[in-house]
Amino acid sequence: xxxxxxxxxxxxxxxxxxxxxxxxxxxxxxxxxxxxxxxxxxxxxxxxxxxxxxxxxxxxxxxxxxxxxxxxxxxxxxxxxxxxxxxxxxxxxxxxxxxxxxxxxxxxxxxxxxxxxxxxxxxxxxxxxxxxxxxxxxxxxxxxxxxxxxxxxxxxxxxxxxxxxxxxxxxxxxxxxxxxxxxxxxxxxxxxxxxxxxxxxxxxxxxxxxxxxxxxxxxxxxxxxxxxxxxxxxxxxxxxxxxxxxxxxxxxxxxxxxxxx
Length: 261
What we know:
The protein is α+β, with helices and mostly antiparallel strands. It has helices spanning about 60-80, 90-105, 155-160, 170-175, 210-215, 220-225, 230-245, and strands spanning about 10-20, 20-30, 40-45, 50-55, 115-120, 130-135, 140-145, 145-150, 195-200, 205-210, 250-260.
C-alpha cells in the first residue's frame, strides 16, 4: 500500500523478494521538505510482486492528494488482479482505468486533480521489466558506474531544451517545467510511455519525483546511488534534498538487482 511519513521518518518501506533468476532489494521513502505543509507525493513498494511506483500530485490541494492515491491504488489493484499475465497491453489498460478514476474523483473537486506517474514492473522471469511513464517523475539506471536517465519528461521545458529553444538554466526553461504535457487526470487521457528494459544483476534503479532531481545534481545522485544498501541510499538521497533547501516534496525508490544464490 502507499504510505506517507514526516521528514524525520523518511524510509517508508523496504523489502527483498526473488524475481525469477534475480533478487530484488528495494527501499522507498518520502519527505515533506521545507516548503509545503504536507506531502502530496505517493509511493508504492510491493511486498509480494516485483512492482514499484511513485506519483507526484499537481499542486498542494486535495486534488493533488486524491490523484496520487487513486492512481497508485488503481495500478496496484489491477497488477495484482492480472498477475502473472501482466504485459504492455494490461499496463496500458491499468493506466486508462486510473485516468478514468482520477477524472471521476476530480469532478467532485473544484480544483486541478492530477499527478505524474513512474512505475516499474518486472516480468516473472526477472529478465525484463516494463517502465510506465507520465509526467516529469523519473527512472534512472546505474550500471557499471554510469547513471542514465531512462525516461523522458513530458514537459514544455524538456521540449524546449531538447530543440534548443532556450538554455536549460534559463528563466524560460524554469517556467516551462511547470507546463506538463501528459499526466494522470489530463482531460485527453494521454497514453503513457511504456519502455521495455532488461534487468541485470548489479544494476541499481532509482524512481523519484522532481523534488529529488531538481535539488540533487547528476554527480551527487550517482555517488549516493553507489551505496549498496537501498535503505541507506534512500535516506541519503532524501537528506540531500533537505540539505539543498527542501523546496519540494521528495520521494525516492531505490532498487538493487542481486544475483540469486
